[in-house]
Design brief:
Blueprint lengths: L1 H19 L23 H29 L2 H14 L1 H10 L3 H16 L8 H4 L9 H8 L7 E4 L3 E4 H13 L1 H6 L4 H18 L1 H7 L5 H17 L17
Antiparallel strand pairs: 1-2
Helix pairs in contact: 1-5, 3-10, 4-5, 7-8
């Protein structure tokens, strides 16, 4: 009952925000796009050092932990854990969709969270996807691009945290303070937020372990990782439909 009441309050918060704010959104031109990410790599020396550190940590600690996790938990339980943390990201994605002026996606993410939280055992079951509500990933880094206040950002690799863009890193900081999950749904302190953050990132880490393992087979693992991440972020910014002539064509991946 408390969860349903908080969901209603959250919907009211969204509706009020949209009616009270008039934001000039940037229309993304597919034919003449502005590069969302710098076609250079100005922090490459630092990034390579951090990348090597992260790979060493992965090989020594991360990979054994993931293998233990895979050994202990059967797939149905791992699927439930993955669904649970994925569901926790929907309120933030919904808010950023609204901030970008995308009302349809905002409502879709909100409905996903409502359905999975109430009928999906707090998100352990992903009922919404089978009902036609696909997962949407939006964050404040993408919102900054849509607003036109930070059109081009640089690739950055941080220790333990992995790859970011500078815009995405700044956006994640804002997301941490404005996440409606903690403002309107879950009543927890900073320690609870930390453990939920850690759990969500661990699940994401588990999901990309095969990609990380494949890096060892690449001629230049750093370049391959950079290309893959920039493609991922560009795809998010353009909502799955990036222009063919965006920044990745400008990189020399040889």
């Amino acid at each position: 009952m408390i969860l349903k009441l908080k969901l209603i309050i959250l919907l009211f918060f969204y509706s009020t925000f949209i009616m009270a704010n008039d934001v000039n959104y940037v229309e993304i031109d597919q034919d003449h796009p502005v590069h969302a990410i710098n076609d250079q790599d100005p922090y490459e020396s630092f990034n390579r050092t951090m990348f090597d550190f992260n790979m060493a940590f992965n090989d020594a600690i991360g990979q054994p932990v993931v293998k233990t996790y895979d050994f202990i938990f059967p797939q149905p339980i791992k699927t439930g854990i993955n669904n649970f943390f994925s569901n926790l990201g929907d309120p933030l994605s919904s808010l950023n969709s609204f901030l970008q002026g995308n009302i349809e996606d905002g409502l879709s993410s909100f409905m996903r969270f409502t359905i999975n939280s109430t009928f999906g055992l707090l998100g352990l079951l992903d009922i919404a996807t089978s009902s036609g509500l696909e997962k949407i990933n939006e964050d404040f880094g993408q919102t900054l691009y849509v607003w036109g206040v930070w059109k081009e950002s640089n690739y950055l690799v941080l220790p333990f945290l992995g790859p970011y863009t500078t815009r995405g890193l700044a956006g994640s900081y804002i997301d941490g303070y404005t996440n409606p999950l903690y403002l309107s749904v879950i009543d927890t302190d900073i320690n609870g937020r930390f453990w939920l953050y850690l759990g969500g990132n661990f699940v994401s880490y588990v999901n990309i372990m095969k990609v990380i393992d494949d890096l060892h087979n690449q001629p230049d693992p750093y370049v391959f990782a950079r290309e893959s991440y920039l493609q991922y972020r560009t795809n998010l910014i353009y909502n799955g439909n990036p222009p063919e002539n965006d920044l990745l064509d400008d990189f020399d991946f040889e």
